[in-house]
Each structure stands twice: as C-alpha cells, then as structure tokens.
Amino acid sequence: MRNKRILAICLIVIFLFALVGCGKTGKNDAGTATKDSVVIAMDAESEPAAGFDPIMGWAAGEHTHDPLIQSTLLITKDDITIGYDLAKEYTISPDGLTWTFKIRSDVKFTDGVPLTAKDVAFTYNNAMKQATDTDLSMLKSVEAIDDTTAVFHFNTPYSAFAYTAAVVGIVPEHAYNAATYGKNPIGSGRYILKQWDKGQQVILEANPNYYGEKPAIKKVSIVFMSEDASYAAAQGGQVDVAYTAPSYTVNPVKGYKILSFNTEDIRGLNLPTVPAGNKTPAKKNGESYPAGNNVTSQLAIRQAIALAIDREAIVKNVLNGYGSVAYSDSVNEPWENEAMKVAFDPAKAKSILEADGWRLSADGIYEKQGLTAEFDLLYISSNSVRTGIAMAVKEMLQQVGIKVNPIGSSWDKIATLCYETPHVFGAGSHSPTGVRSHYYTGKNYAFYSNKTVDRYIDEALAATSVEASYPLWKKAQWDGAVGVTPQADSPWVWLVEIKHIYFAKENLNVIDKKIHPHGYGWTIVNNVHQWSWK
C-alpha cells in the first residue's frame, strides 16, 4: 500500500504540473501576490459520461449545481426554495397543466447570439426524448410564443417542476449538434468550458459577457480522482481543494484546513416490502429484475431495524463526527416531516419482534414459522463510508437477534439486485420528488406501495404552486395514521447525513452556504465565482 501511495503521488505531481495555467500566480502593481484561479480534486465518478450536455442529462442527479456552463430558468436558493435565473417570473394555470415563463432579454450565448424562448423550447423538447436522470415525463411540449415567452404544456400537474427547471441548462438551437455539443458546449452561464481531457481534467474560464455577478475566480481547473489520489494530491500541495472521506481526516494535511458542508447526502437502507418471487416492471428495453425479500417483507422486521440502529454511533465511529443522524432523505428541507424521527431503542425492537411471533433460537437469531431473521446487505465496496455503515449495521442488528451478511460489490451489479436485497443507499436532492422516488408505487427500490401515500404525492404534484405542495409532501410521509415512518410502514430506514468534506488550502476562502445534495460532485463549485485568496 505504501509503495502504491508513493507511486500515486509521483504520477499526480507530474500530471498536475502539466495543467494549463493551474494555480498560476501573478503580481499586481504593488508587488502583492494575486491569484484568480483554483484547482479542485473531484470524485472520478463526477465526470459526466455523456459530456456537458443538458439534453443528455448534464446537471441532473449527482451533477447538480448552480448555473455554471449553461443558464437555467430557475435556481434553488440557499434555503432550497426557488429563485430566478433566466426567468423573470412564471405563472401556473389553475389546472396545473400550463406553465408560462417570461425570460430575460439581455442574455447572450458565448458565441454572441442572443438567448431566446426558442432556445428554451428547443432544449426541453429535445431533452424529453432522451432517457436520462432528468425526469421530463410530465411534459407534453414546450413552445416559444415570442422571444421572451416560453409556454410549457404538461401531461399531468407537476408542481415540483420548479426544481427541474433549476437544473436543466439551456442550449443554443442554432449551434447544437448532439454528436459534439457535450465536448464543446456553448452556453450562457458563468463559465466557459475551455478544455476537457476525458478521464483527467476539465478547465473552465470565466465568461466575460455573463449577465450576472462577475466571477472573482477566473479559471477553475477540475481533476477527477479516487479518494486515495485526491488525498495524495493534497499531501503533495498540487491542488487547492481536494474532496475526501472521514477516514482521511485523522491525518490532516499541512497547509490545508478541513471544510465540512451540510448536505442532503443521506445514507439509508431500502427494505423490500414484498416477499421474494416478484419482478420489477419491464423497462423500455424489456429488462426486469427480481424483487422481494421474505425477511424484510415482514413489517415487524422493518420496524425493529429502524429502532435497533444507533445512528449517533455511526456518526461518531464511521463518519468521525463528520455527519449527523438522519431519519429521512429530506433533512432540513421545507417538506421534511418531523414524524420520521425515531429514538434508538433496541429493547423496543425486540418487543416488536416478539409481539409478532418471533422467537430467539439457540444461536441468538430470531425465527418465526421456519423463517430466520437473516438477510444480505449490499454496499459499494470502493466507498469507505458505505463499507463502514454496512459493518456497523451488521453489529447493531446482531444485538437484537437479526443477522446481516454484508456483501461488497459495484453499483453496476447492485442496481440489478437491490429490489430483492437491501443496500446501503445514498440519496437526497434539492427537490421533494425524492419522496416520490422512494415511496410511490412502481417507483422505488423497496417495491413499496400504499394508496394513501400515492394519493398525497399526486395531490402534492397537483398543487397550485411548489410552496403549496410542501404540506402534502409531509402528509405523504405521515398523516397521523398512515405513512412511511418507522412506526408505520418503514420501507426505508434512513441513518445518517454525510457531511461533504474537503481539504482546502488555508489561504483560500471557500464560499458555500447551500445544503449539498447527494453526491460529492459539482456542488462544490456552486459558488466558486465568489471564492477568493487571502
């Protein structure tokens, strides 16, 4: 391991010195050193496979960020409520099926061509045809009434679309080519993509004609690295900001401070709620996966698991304190329901099992009618936090008579198995639709279905505004009698919020006030234009 680390550092030093102008320091008239560029080590999985093309899903899922290369109609503010970017205002028809956006008239693409409502319509109409992380299935069509008016026609009411409009960047109709745009995007955002060496680095430069706040940081160089390589790059002083994991913070890096950001990056367990032998609905390509688990389909098992896991201990021992307990995937967001919270109570967990007819066997594991309280638990083996959580869950559930068999794998394999086998999931977004993706019938990895929960979600999406939807999203979680809370159906057991941790050079002022969504990724550059060197 030591030899590998030394080799990694040597390769990183050679590579980083080759970066064009990275970390280049100049002098002002007074002779004081100035710096207007940064080098950031980012998770290798953050590099978008399809390039920087919003039509193909760039800025969706774990790539979520504020306007960067392309502008968006709306933005999410620091408190995760909705603000404006290209749009000056928007209205929703009483039936929720028509949204009208009035957009700014002073925005130009980096090639000098004005951005109009035609570009908005072009972007969305084409993105609707693609199968990406951006869900646009609620849309029927988008039309440009004039240069500053875009009208969105919906198949069904969808109040949460405001959050979608905050991540879909607008591309130029006149300069879009599906084969090449992702590599050489033309946008209207704060930065221009100047260079992309696939698998290695991205270099962004400030857009001199940006209509908003002018970036103080003129060049942003991003290198894609594994956890080990990111740490080694910081040790070698070759990056200004390096993402890291809790296990690396026990050995601080000289000249670097540790930054910790609040997140919606939640870890939890999906607990399949139906018996084994089921199948997921077939996808467009005909693929279908096994679903259901005979053990976790037992309500008493799911409720006991929620009570038997010591979340505080996971924060302390797995996250080294860089996190907090979590009971939902909506921590500190406007639609979070306080009823999701549950106390650590292993004694009560046992009493729930025993009241349901489970009895301890000679080896200390509960059994019921020939069924043993035992199941496999999948986790991504390359991720140190998920590995630690899986092992902690095993030990904690052992104490209440439930046997867990952790199995490390890759996400590509886990994605086909987790409908029947619980997995240490990562989740959390800047949108209430996370509630839908985890609990709506036919949409979730727990294979969970509840008509009352579905009804509240439908009503939330049909609300007259995104603000009016918040109480309904809360009811979908718990209405006082029915819901997904630990004392109710408990199809997911949420455990901890992961702080996003970075090593940053001591003289770099990193501004980032917004709660980060799931995935280290691009959210670190949300406010990179406001960073400064001391």
TrEMBL record:
It comes from Pelosinus propionicus DSM 13327. It comes from the Bacteria. Belongs to the bacterial solute-binding protein 5 family. GO terms for biological process: peptide transport. GO terms for cellular component: ATP-binding cassette (ABC) transporter complex; periplasmic space. Keywords: Signal, Transport. This is Peptide/nickel transport system substrate-binding protein. InterPro entries: Peptide/Ni-bd, SBP_5, SBP_5_dom. PANTHER family: OLIGOPEPTIDE-BINDING PROTEIN APPA, PERIPLASMIC BINDING COMPONENT OF ABC TRANSPORTER. GO terms for molecular function: peptide transmembrane transporter activity. Residues 84-412 form the Solute-binding protein family domain. Signal peptide: none annotated.
